[in-house]
Amino acid sequence: MPRCSKVSPAASRSKPMTEPSANSLTDEEQALWHAIKMLGDEACQAVGRDITARTALSGADFAILSRLDELGDGRLAQRDLLASLGWDKSRVSHQLRRMEERGLVTRDQIEGAACATLTEAGAQALALTRPVHAAAIRERALQHVRPEERDALIAVARRIAAAVKK
In a 3-state reduction of DSSP, which class is residue 58? Predict the structure, then answer.
């Protein structure tokens, strides 16, 4: 059975440039798009793996607990979690159910809105995980950005984020 192989970014740059077309990306555009995806997807996945390996939380647990703490002072409506995470309703609902079973959050209805609340156990787990999260971000991403590149990277990320929100 044939296996799929992962093509390295260097290998994709060695291909001859294609002519621009309204129907497809040029090789240079494709390489840039893959670089943008890699920055977000692979860095976040690596940080999530580090959190899972070093703590009792998953990356998804940490994402929810940190948002409950930072955005809602311990409590948020599920719709606000959806908006802040960019996840679909089903994923948030299933994740909250699993976290509730482990005592990290409670769920209830307030004025017809589904809400999640950080428990004491969740707050303790979050406090223990924050240093791991910070170290993973520094190790996996920040240390690889030179000081002279930081402002440009931030500016590009902000422009892209603004464009995709339109």
Answer: coil
